[in-house]
Design a protein that fits this description.
Blueprint (H helix, E strand, L loop, with lengths): L1 H24 L6 E3 L17 E5 L3 H17 L8 E5 L1 H11 L6 H12 L3 H11 L7 H12 L18 E8 L5 E5 L38 H8 L9 E5 L8 E7 L8 H11 L5 E7 L6 H4 L14 H25 L3 E7 L2 H7 L19 H6 L3 H6 L9 H19 L5
Parallel strand pairs: 1-6, 2-3, 2-8, 3-4, 8-9
Antiparallel strand pairs: 4-5, 4-7, 6-7
Helix pairs in contact: 2-3, 2-4, 2-14, 5-6, 6-7
């Protein structure tokens, strides 16, 4: 009996090692295969509705919770139904995909409570458990991305949905980046002009996104593409996740082509640019409105200058991305203003930035006095209160991750509610 158990144990160890070695030697994975010539998508139809966009930024679970709370705040004011286009990046895509597959119900309070519960789920733990069940994924970020897909396909979330399941009355854009070209790549149930189209009303080619469109033919993302793949790709921050590899099968003796995609926040973390592209593609010069829920962390100059060692190559490597985003955003905003003026486009951007809470609290704004004391924040722990003097200070420290604590969730959700109230109900807030 002892020899049998020893043999079985040895066999299990050999199988485990073989799986790990296989994942290390063959780390790549093709996540989706298609023939562009046969690509078909189910397009959303907006009719002649005024353009109202919703941009949901990246920022892991923090961004997902912030976006969900922001949508609830808009819904309370009867504004969520007016949204025609939703553009999301990374964590914002979690909330966008939930809205796409689970329309708001009559009992809105219960609906958003469930939505927040899903957004606050510990997806990091699920990914790790999926990794343990599939050891061949251990040394492969592109295979680890499949573990995130599996986690997203919970029964109460994406549940195996594909793009063909998306609604037809609203356009959704899930933003990623092409590692082959350095440009935005968009998964969508709508279409945008080809990035190289010659159109006097269109944006310059450099500001347009790539997609499944080929040549002059406009195509949406194929119906059979898993929604979990688009959401996971948009959140695939290197080197932990990705890249997603899409194989474009060659025709007429042509060789296959491979597209490599990753986290859209690397090039533009708010989702605004894709909405602006969609507005320009319409050629409609009526006023367009974009609501932006920005939960992305940015460079904190004041805090940085107080630190002797910011440890860029160990604990703060993402700061390099933040530096590039700061630079790119400044140029993009300047160019956008000039292009809009030149083309007679009226685009109103209303941004709700979670970091604005700490600034408002520090300025002594009466509406934000509750951010200066821990009284009433029933999910805060002793450790939270010891780590930060005030909730406003603690809000800035909420990390970018695939999980979030109960205290951080409460802070982020309240931040969204307060910012929307401040903008639309300044007297009451």
């Amino acid at each position: 009996m002892g020899l049998f158990l020893a043999g079985m144990t040895a066999l299990a160890v050999i199988i485990l090692l073989a799986a790990v070695i296989y994942g290390f030697i063959v780390p790549l994975k093709v996540h989706f295969r298609t023939d562009l010539a046969d690509t078909r998508g189910s397009l959303a139809e907006q009719g002649d509705k005024p353009f109202v966009g919703l941009a949901l930024s990246g920022g892991g679970a923090r961004a997902a919770v912030f976006a969900a709370a922001g949508m609830e705040a808009l819904h309370k004011r009867g504004m969520l139904d007016q949204i025609t286009h939703v553009s999301s990046v990374s964590g914002g895509g979690f909330a966008a995909s939930y809205l796409a597959l689970h329309p708001v119900e009559t009992d809105a309070r219960a609906y958003f409570k469930r939505m927040q519960s899903v957004m606050a789920h510990d997806f990091f733990w699920d990914v790790q458990m999926n990794q343990l069940r599939r050891p061949s994924r251990a040394f492969s970020p592109s295979r680890r991305l499949v573990s995130l897909q599996d986690a997203l396909n919970r029964q109460d979330f994406l549940d195996g949905a594909v793009f063909g399941h998306l609604p037809k009355d609203r356009t959704f854009f899930f933003n990623s980046v092409s590692y082959d070209t350095g440009r935005r790549f968009v998964f969508s149930n709508g279409t945008l002009p080809p990035h190289d189209a010659d159109d006097t009303v269109a944006l310059p080619s450099a500001l347009r996104s790539l997609s499944f469109s080929g040549g002059e033919n406009l195509r949406a993302t194929p119906n059979e593409v898993p929604l979990s793949l688009a959401v996971a790709t948009s959140a695939a921050f290197p080197p932990y996740l990705g890249p997603t590899t899409i194989q474009i099968e060659g025709r007429n003796a042509q060789a296959d082509e491979y597209w490599h995609l990753g986290d859209g926040g690397v090039v533009e973390n708010t989702g605004i640019e894709t909405l602006r592209e969609a507005i320009y593609a319409r050629g409609d010069k009526r006023q367009a409105v974009i609501y932006v829920f920005n939960a992305g962390q940015r460079l904190n100059s004041e805090l940085s200058r107080k630190s002797a060692d910011i440890s860029i190559w160990s604990r703060e490597v993402t700061r390099l991305v933040d530096v590039l985003l700061e630079y790119a955003t400044a140029h993009r905003e300047t160019m956008s203003a000039e292009l809009d003026a030149k083309n007679g486009m009226d685009i109103r951007v209303i941004e709700f930035d979670y970091l604005a809470i700490s600034k408002a609290a520090a300025s002594g704004a009466p509406a934000f006095a509750h951010w200066l004391t821990w009284d009433g924040w029933y999910y805060s722990t002793h450790a939270d209160r010891m780590a930060s003097k005030t909730p406003a200070e603690h809000l800035v420290k909420v990390p970018t991750a695939l999980k979030i604590t109960a205290c951080d969730r409460q802070l982020v959700a309240q931040a969204a509610a307060d910012l929307v109230a401040q903008h639309f109900d300044p007297v009451r807030s």
